[in-house]
Design a protein that fits this description.
The structure is a homodimer. By secondary structure, the first copy, chain A, is mainly α. Helices cover 70% and strands 4% of the residues of chain A. Chain A has a three-stranded antiparallel beta sheet. Chain A is globular and about 50 Å long. The structure holds a DNA duplex.
DNA sequence: ATATCTATCATTGCATACAATTTGTGTACA
DNA sequence: TGTACACAAATTGTATGCAATGATAGATAT
């Protein structure tokens, strides 16, 4: 897996980021320096620096003398998330519509194409990563150094939350995803037209859709069975 | 200066943060690993980790194979700053008013007392640090993990911009500072009363005041002399 | 005189060895 | 049986030496 000698530090960074975004490494998972350094054929010194950098980006948390763990997610996290997301994302998309350059718009379209491909492909992790990349591009379009740090953290947990709350069997959820894809298309159109009001509105709508998806999961319709009986009531 | 063996890593962190906030270390200044490690009696390994951590917090920038520098500030920075600040800070103060606990309010009052003392003391750097601490406390009151990263970056450059654009001789600027102090008092009152609308409004007003102070500096009234003559016109 | 190539120097990056801290386990004693 | 203490093991933190990379200056050729 990890034989390339040259950029192995970057490789670890990318791998860990992906693994955390896709929940291959779950929140709270222990990141052992010694194990990782063996696994990636890298000494502990640069590996510790990688973990420090990931901590700065919000992927992991480091406690003194107690090592690194994948950043936790709690109930409070969800609330904080949906409180902050519409505002930050609205601002990002508004600025993106104002400032996007032609090559950036090309990037965004490519990201959306990849997202649609991933949608058809059915690999949940690939979807989450593609979606993450789409939004990441909008962040760079906005180009505001003060907004970016919060936005990036939102994107991390957006991916993780999606992975947590996604039920592949559910038809309603599939429909929801198609709606999300359509919104991406609308977002691209608004940005390309430089219509910042429309872009900001779409941001809100997009996050509301996410919220609906999660509400479906957190507060499902009650099971139509009584515990311990194994038969439907009445 | 640095003889305590025990927490020297933390010491370096604090020192560098302060030095950067007060512009003792100016934007773009080179941070040499070897020099710092001698100066603080610490080997290069932990010192590099300190620099990595500061990079994550937005104090410094690291370029591969080319070392660390104090984070730059450009013209664009100022624009980005005043674009993002009212929104983020408004949100922070709104949440602070909703969520502040009694001990946090006590902290905030203590911070404001210290700020007033610093105002009278006349040490510009001390003022900037005291002001920074006041706002930092409001950030913790808000307690939203997604908003905090952007807020902290705003605070870093708020301190640095203040240090850059402050003219101690100017009477108008002294008056402006008193107004800022009064706003701090009003902010405390709004938070203590749990009045989130008022807190959010005060946030906007507070940043507008900052903007006025900087506009005075960036766009001063033209000098009443003609270049090259040495005499007043007319 | 200018430009380019090369050799040397300074600085950063990585690996290994060692020290310190924390965690886990066993045992003695109430 | 439960608690406290002490020792052992595992893991993190730090120091130092060496390798690799980028900057600088000098020499040579055009």
């Amino acid at each position: 897996m990890a034989l390339a000698k040259k950029h192995s530090k970057e490789d670890v960074l990318h791998h860990l980021r992906h693994a955390i975004l896709t929940q291959e490494l779950q929140p709270g998972a222990d990141l052992d320096e010694a194990r990782l350094s063996e696994e990636w054929h890298l000494s502990r010194t640069p590996l510790r620096e990688v973990l420090r950098q990931l901590a700065g980006e919000g992927f992991v948390e480091i406690r003194a003398n107690r090592g690194a763990r994948v950043a936790e997610m709690s109930h409070k996290t969800l609330r904080d998330f949906f409180l902050a997301a519409p505002m930050i994302y609205g601002a990002i998309l508004r600025l993106a519509a104002q400032n996007a350059t032609a090559p950036q718009i090309a990037d965004l379209k490519a990201a959306q194409t990849a997202f649609k491909t991933a949608l058809r492909g059915g690999d949940i992790a690939a979807r989450a990563l593609a979606n993450n990349h789409f939004h990441d591009v909008t962040g760079r379009m906005a180009g505001n150094v003060y907004l970016l740090p919060s936005f990036q953290r939102l994107l991390i947990d957006h991916a993780r939350i999606s992975m947590t709350f996604f039920r592949p069997q559910d038809a309603e959820m599939a429909e929801n995803l198609n709606a999300a894809s359509d919104q991406h298309d609308a977002i691209i159109a608004a940005i390309e037209a430089g219509n910042d009001d429309a872009a900001a509105d779409l941001a809100i709508a997009h996050w509301n859709l996410s919220r609906d998806r999660i509400e479906q999961f957190v507060m499902p319709a009650g099971l139509d069975l009584q515990l311990g009986t194994g038969t439907a009531p009445e």
